[in-house]
Amino acid sequence: MTRKLLQAALVACAFAATGAQAQTEIQWWHSMGGALGDKLNELATQFNKSQGDYKVVPVYKGSYPESMTAAIAAFRAGNAPHILQVFEVGTATMMSAKGAVVPVYKLMKDSDEPFDPKAYLPAVSGYYTDAKGNMLSFPFNSSTVLFYVNKDAFRKAGLDPNKPPKTWKDFSQAAEKLKASGAKCVYTTSWPSWMHVENFSAWHNVPIGTKDNGMGGLDAKFTINSPLHVRHVSMLGDFAKKGWFTYAGRTSQGDAKFTSGECAMFSGSAGAQAGIRKGAKFDWSVNMIPYHDDVKGAPQNSIIGGASLWVMGGKTNNAYKGVAKFFAFLSRPEVQMAWHTGTGYVPITHAAYELTRKSGFYAKDPGAEVAVKQLTNKAPTANSKGLRFGNFVQGREVIEEELESVFAGKKDAKSALDEAVRRGNEVLRKFESANRS
Amino acid sequence: MEKRVLFRSSWLPYLLVAPQVAVTVIFFFWPASQAIYYAFQLQDAFGLESRFVGLANFQDLFHDDRYFESFKTTAIFSGLVACSGIGISLVLATMADRVVRGALAYKTLLIWPYAVAPAIAGVLWAFIFAPSIGIVTYALQKLGIDWNWIINGDQAMLLVVIASVWKQISYNFLFFLAGLQSIPKSLIEAAAIDGAGPFRRFWTIVFPLLSPTTFFLLVVNIVYAFFDTFGVIDATTQGGPAQATQILVYKVYYDGVKAADLGGSSAQSVILMAIVIALTAVQFRFVERKVQY
Description:
The complex is a heterodimer.
Chain A: H1 2-21, E1 24-30, H2 34-50, E2 54-60, H3 64-76, E3 83-87, H4 91-96, E4 101-102, H5 104-110, H6 122-125, E5 138-143, E6 145-150, H7 151-156, H8 168-180, E7 185-189, H9 192-203, H10 210-213, H11 227-242, H12 253-259, E8 263-269, H13 273-279, E9 284-287, E10 305-312, H14 317-331, H15 333-343, H16 350-358, H17 361-364, H18 367-375, H19 392-407, H20 413-434
Parallel strand pairs in A: 1-2, 1-3, 7-8
Antiparallel strand pairs in A: 3-10, 4-10, 5-10, 6-8, 6-9
Helix pairs in contact in A: 2-15, 5-14, 9-19, 15-16, 19-20
Chain B: H1 12-39, E1 41-43, E2 50-52, H2 56-62, H3 65-98, H4 103-111, H5 118-128, H6 135-142, H7 153-181, H8 185-193, H9 198-228, H10 230-235, H11 248-258, H12 262-290
Antiparallel strand pairs in B: 1-2
């Protein structure tokens, strides 16, 4: 009943607004808080100023999982937004929701807007393309996991600030010295599963799951309990015991711990750079993530994270025209470059990458290029192309929970990862059975 | 002498209860029936297709160790919340009852926390106990205690118990105070004349006479811990770490809303519904019959 009332009120407001301006409003739900949110709002304002027919209204809906669940609930109630920013782990869920979304390639074709999937970096476009080669969502903020170092803390510990740890062996040596120098927190991470399971697997060229990490079909199974995975997670458990690794939480809580200067080393999204640049009062550097040097073929290449924009179904043709125009605006190299250099996210088109290089930005700020270099370190293999698991929002939570029990010293790595595989597979089977057709 | 209002009109009584019935039907029966319906369905996240799966959702639940784990967590959590909440507020009420000067100020202050929303209470305590910036964390670190409920399950449980108890103390306090004030002063005075000390008087006279209130509060507190603490948990631990604070009602929310498993979540609500019905039945039987006011 209250919802109906609210709807009526919203409709009334919308009429009042459109009546005055005769513009079509395009709702855009996103999860970019803080400095990133400011940059996103700039994009919308720029677009709104560039033309008079459409008005993009960005709405911050909380974290990635929150905005996705909000949009699902809104869709079921019949008032989904036009554009929804969905993080990479929600991709499989969105792809399977055929009646709920409008594929981007179709949207652009119907609206006669130029759209060339080949313009995008393969590491990016591959993630959002279906088996037939059609791009289903619009890549927006692609990142990858990077390794950040507090150079001041390195100096204080008697370490060379210009030699960040390249391997996990180097890491141990650095960690020992940092701990001895009295660092309150030696290392922390944001997105533990993304960093230490998903990207770890790609970086060492081992599968996360069967069927090309789930890209080959819904009947994939997790394979994250291999000896290498167990070795890595049990190493982290040891680090936690020694006080070299402080757990911060399942999402981006680690960012604040590094930015405040509490933690000397940190792994987190490339997108964290915007916040660190704004908030850090110390000298820091961005580096590739460490690897185990005795693993053959490592380091391979890392996989992307971040999010893409999905177009929700059931809207007017006129609104879709506006969405297509907005996407065309977002694909412009200069817009892409501004977003890339302003946020730390990866330049997602070849043209934007070229433009940024020519502008001399990387010469000034070499850290900004690390993400692209790490993503394209080697030609991607079946293990490092990306992943696509049904309801991986839940699957990842399962992994995070099991990791937590290792970091808390409650379980050993082997039994925790075995359990993660067993429970994760249950999630996959349930998704497979709910999306049979 | 019996007082009874007789309605001559045949429709007026129905009209008068209609708003209440409408509220009950819309906000209780309709969602409950939806939950029962979905408990037998398997549906994708967007509700595009749905099919009948019989008891499969329930079978999945009873094969899931995590579900039983959640039962255990709920039992521990509600036991801690109910016992410490009742204990602390009984002490406070007894004290407040004895205060003569400024009694109103004490009582008002003790009732205040009840006006705080659960989510706010959760955030408040989460700040005080925040792993890197909390003021209590700072003090604990000085004492050599490593406080980090983000990873330590027992500490996380302690945090949500503290926040939930703090929130509920006022309610318990009110009832105990009313209970204490209804005990005839002559009884206590008689005991005092017979030479019974304050402790003796409390245990042999006051406490037994308070038993109806205590029992009522026990049931109310358990129901509170079961359902109303959702806001506290969502604002602080969100069920983590590693499900250490995932009580049943939070799991219903988590599975249904976050994990988009509507069928499994509905099956859990149906089971929860059965538990509430049982609790209410127990309350009515005991409170209405056995315990004397």
